[in-house]
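User: I'm preparing a small set of examples for a lab meeting where we compare how different chains pack in three dimensions. I only have the primary sequence for this one, and I'd like the structure in token form so I can line it up with the others. Please keep the answer compact; I'll paste it straight into my notes.
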Amino acid sequence: MVVENQANSERERTNYTGILPTASQSLVGMANEASLDGRYKKGYSSFQDGSRAVYGPLVYRTYSQNGYTWNAGITVQNLSTQQATVNLYYYKSDGSPAGSQTNQAIAGRGMSGFVAPQNGFKGSVMITANRDIAVVVNVINDASSGDTRAIYNASSR
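Assistant: Understood. Below is the structure token output for the 157-residue chain.
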């Protein structure tokens, strides 16, 4: 999947792929992401297993702070061979509900990307599913220099 990000003045293209390796023994992995122009690089560890409920403690959607605009993309990987139904519940920083995206279908071994449903959002997300899932959250801001990207694995605890 190719995602185009217009956060900066230059058009940036990032390739995303997902893999589900299997082996007779435990595997450990590391994922690295880099923009095609080499400016942005980030990494995260692989998942040891999935969960049917995960939490992303920091999610944005066109949220302005200190002169920068923040956004976050949420990537959900279905670890099952069967279709998963996924629900995303968003909460404001004070813990009050801020919207949801429910009954989102993801094909077996498939993945899908999500963003918070409203502009100006800063808060968290709880994601539930009827199959095991793994979730990565990409956070970006529109600064013209410096460290403008972060990534983290959503937690099942």
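A couple of notes for your slides: Confidence is low (pLDDT under 50) at residues 1-16. The two ends are 29 Å apart (CA to CA).

User: Perfect, thanks.
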